[in-house]
Design a protein that fits this description.
This protein is α/β, with parallel strands linked by helices. The protein folds into two domains: 234 residues, Malonyl-Coenzyme A Acyl Carrier Protein, domain 2, CATH 3.40.366.10; 60 residues, Malonyl-CoA ACP transacylase, ACP-binding (Alpha-Beta Plaits, 2-Layer Sandwich), CATH 3.30.70. It has 14 helices and ten strands. The chain is globular and about 55 Å long. The two termini are 23 Å apart. 50% of the residues are buried. The mean pLDDT is 96.
Length: 308
Amino acid sequence: MVDSKKAAYIFPGQGAQYVGMGKGLYETFPEAKEVFEKASEIVGFDLKKLCFEGPKEELTRTANSQVAILTTSIAALRSFISEKKSANLDICASLGLSLGEYTALIAAGAISFEEGLRLVKLRGQFMEEAAIQNPGTMSSIIGLSVDDAEEIAKSTNTEIANLNCPGQVVISGKKEQIEEANRIAKEKGAKRCIMLDVSGAFHSSAMDPARDKLKPEIEKANIRSPKIPVVANHTALFEESPDQIKENLIHQVNHRTRWADSISLVASGGVGIFFEIGPGKVLKGLLRRINSDLTVYNIETPQDVESI
């Protein structure tokens, strides 16, 4: 049974970035302007200029895109809240895809914006370094079951990276291994195999060096029990223990994300409204395939905020 007032926040991951994101929010809402100004102080460069003007090549770099997406998402969230748009809603969950999990934890009050951005800056830097150390790529296999994808991954020495929605499995590995996996997947009846425009084999063992560097940083971070229930990518379960949240963030870097299961868990509690907060509409598309009965509103521009 769907409750018309039960809602959840969802936050995008890497890949959602585009030049110009957040500019309208910055110019319209004092809360958004404050977020961008504070973020530029924390990361040590003019982040708003990079988000608003690019260049695209710099914005797309893993070390930059993660802090840019998180900042834009929090600017959108605080603009949304400032307009009292969530006042009549029961926000039952906060969750994000990969990088978006950090944004979700900030939104849920489990971690401060400053601490979250500091961790994500390091995360992006360490992942970029790991991608150089262990070159690889990713592919989205459309139209096969998870079991078939698991079998292909095992035979090609690739790894399952993302379980995004029914019929879509993303794999990570070295370029030649991914190409072989795509060939086998097509033979098995995959509708499409899409090589992703990414700089590394994320959410796989290629990211072990990033996990090892990030681990001590997360362990010493000030993480509290969330005020809004948060679903972890790694377990697809509600997690409230600060120690467990830290463990999940550490594991998430080099293990698969379980987005479809995470959304299904939230929906099973009667949540039918989701607010995709931040740049892009990738999550809206995934939710449509996970459960077509769910309603998703995008919050990324002043017009989006005002139209709710």
